[in-house]
Specification:
Low-density Lipoprotein Receptor, LDrepeatLR_classA_rpt, mainly beta, globular
């Protein structure tokens, strides 16, 4: 169906309405292809009209012509219990001719689960009226999966929160940089954040979001604290939540579990970057021998299009704890680790956990996943996020300088090498070819890493290397920010060093302008390797190369969950579980390519 605009009258509106639908299931989505072409062709908007609600809910928008091409739009409807219609409106600006068209409208997975003749086993729940058989993990998750509400009956309100009436038993952390904000409808910034909540699927429902606009800065954090829970054995406690990470500059959402009140605790889950304009469900299995608390932490990205949404948080199989968590002293004793290892039965191929003496496989050391309770297997390893603040090198080292001694060490002070720097220490005129502010804080007091081209000669190189990394997962990548400004700037390379073999992964040369630029380098599955940042000096001192905020994203190896894959997951041939929306996307998420098999 298409619209041809030939009249010159201002703000003409064409409207197309769907039939009225009685209801939709929890996984309902709508997709269609649209064409919106013309110099001033005008905006288009898809709205949801729900019986009993006075105002519509905006589901999708396009603001301007998007070229001579068909584009696909995907809209998440979710569970809508009331009758509803969809309305597509097209506004013409009345200045130039334009053409808008729509085709191939598809509703997918919009039906409720069908009745079942039987529903046996502890992992299933039989719906009271509809007689559908659903997964037990869908019970008491604030979503009517049955269609009759029976899966949400007799649930403990202290174990779930949809934020319709506040934060429930959750609390804002007082030691973070900003708070999660409770809101209805779209967030204030266009092209980022949710348009509606997850609970009701409309602009009338409430959810939490993290604001990424000024005055907040890159890596500022908003932390939400759960109530306390009693120890949970054998992964019996389950945490479910829905999140949205939509926007070009979305950074990071993480979930931690802590048993000590003044620590961050253990990382259970995290996700980086833009995940699209949709609510995503996540399920986390929790084990703990001590009372514990869950922390949901959002981190601000490098710009205002980085809002993150959170809704419908719930626990299953967990018991509230009325006591308090212990604290640990923050005063150091002057020794960081015992001089000798604890008593253990570990082999030479295994790593000894420093506090407990537990044994883990050697390949589990320095793999971005803490396998020891005290995280000692990830000590002296590559750091997941390095921002060089407080003049911290994050374990990076320069092999050429470490080999120097005696007279050579004196020569090292004038050699071309990596150094920590900040804008506050620059001499007049140096800001023409060296960053005046760092990327992390955007201030002259923030630290970064740079190679001073006033030392050395043309063609000299300087390497900075990570500690040895034992193993990475299939989606592992490095994200970092680089600053390359100057009339005689040299080059910057990222290399992978495995044994005596070095391969180039990324390179850039020449002046890139007076700003920090983002770079992303895919690593994928690798073992026993190091990452090298190599810079080459230009023909003169007018051009320093700098890097900041080096992040290893999604680098922990795949972990066999020790449980059946959930209905939202696909079981790889090697028994790993991955989200089903990762199937057939030309990326080897399983590490054995079974998710890209033609037989799926």
């Amino acid at each position: 169906m298409f619209i041809v605009k030939t009249s010159s009258s201002i703000s003409q509106v064409a409207q197309l309405r769907s039939p009225k639908f009685r209801q939709s299931g929890p996984n309902c989505t709508l997709s269609f292809w649209y064409y919106n072409y013309g110099q001033s062709v005008g905006a288009a908007e898809l709205e949801l009209l729900v019986d009993g609600l006075r105002q519509p809910t905006t589901l999708w928008r396009t603001y301007y012509g998007e070229g001579d091409q068909w584009l696909k739009a995907e809209v998440q409807l979710g569970r809508l219990a009331q009758p509803f219609q969809l309305s597509l409106s097209k506004i013409s600006l009345g200045v130039y001719d334009g053409i808008s068209a729509i085709d191939d409208v598809v509703f997918d997975s919009c039906a409720l689960p069908p009745p079942a003749a039987s529903c046996e086993g502890p992992n299933h729940f039989w719906c009271r009226d509809t007689r559908a058989c659903i997964d037990r993990l869908l019970v008491c998750d604030l979503v009517d999966n049955c269609g009759d509400g029976s899966d949400e009956d007799n649930c403990n309100p202290d174990l779930q929160c949809n934020f319709e009436n506040g934060l429930c038993s959750w609390e804002q952390d007082v030691e973070d940089d900003l708070d999660w904000v409770r809101i209805q409808g779209p967030t204030p910034t266009v092209n980022t954040g949710p348009l509606k909540d997850h609970t009701t699927g409309t602009a009338w429902g409430h959810y939490l979001y993290m604001e990424s606009s000024q005055p907040y800065h890159f890596q500022d954090q908003a932390v939400l604290l759960s109530p306390l829970f009693k120890p949970a054995g054998n992964r019996s406690c389950v945490f479910r939540f829905h999140y949205q990470m939509f926007g070009k500059q979305v950074y990071k959402l993480s979930v931690f579990q802590r048993t000590v009140s003044n620590t961050q605790g253990q990382l259970l889950w995290h996700n980086f970057g833009n995940q699209g304009n949709r609510w995503i469900r996540e399920t986390i299995y929790i084990s703990s021998s001590n009372p514990f608390q869950i922390l949901v932490k959002g981190a601000v990205g490098d710009g205002f299009t980085g809002d993150i949404g959170l809704d419908d948080v719930s626990f299953l199989g967990c018991t509230l704890y009325q006591g308090t968590l212990p604290t640990i002293s923050t005063v150091t004793s002057g020794t960081s680790a015992p001089a000798t290892l604890p008593m253990n039965n570990c082999t030479e191929e295994e790593f000894v956990c420093r506090a407990s003496g537990h044994c883990i496989q050697g390949i589990q050391k320095c793999d971005f996943r803490p396998d020891c309770p005290d995280r000692s297997d990830e000590g002296a390893c590559a750091v997941e996020v390095c921002n060089f603040e407080d003049a911290d090198w994050c374990g990076l080292y320069q092999p050429a300088l470490e080999l120097m001694s005696g007279p050579e060490s004196i020569r090292a002070t004038t050699s071309f090498k990596w150094e920590l720097g900040r804008g506050a220490d620059l001499h007049p005129g140096e800001e023409k070819h060296c960053p005046l502010t760092d990327h992390t804080t955007g201030s002259e007091e923030g630290w970064y890493l740079f190679a001073d081209s006033s030392n050395g000669e043309f063609g000299h190189t300087a390497d900075i290397i990570t500690p040895l990394i034992s193993l990475t997962g299939p989606m592992c990548k490095i994200v970092f920010w680089n600053y390359m400004k100057g009339t005689t700037i040299g080059s910057l390379e990222v290399l992978c060093k495995t044994g005596n073999r070095t391969s180039k992964l990324w390179a850039q040369s020449g002046s890139q302008g007076p700003q920090w630029n983002r770079a992303e380098v895919f690593l994928g599955i690798r073992s026993e390797f190091q990452v090298v940042f190599r810079t080459k000096r230009g023909v003169s001192y007018m051009g320093d190369v700098a890097v900041d905020d080096i992040t290893f994203e999604d680098c922990s190896p795949l972990l066999i969950p020790g449980r059946p894959c959930t209905p939202e997951e696909f079981m790889c041939a090697n028994k790993y579980c991955i989200p089903k929306d990762h199937l057939c996307d030309f990326v080897n998420h399983c590490a054995d390519n079974s998710d890209e098999s033609a037989t799926i």
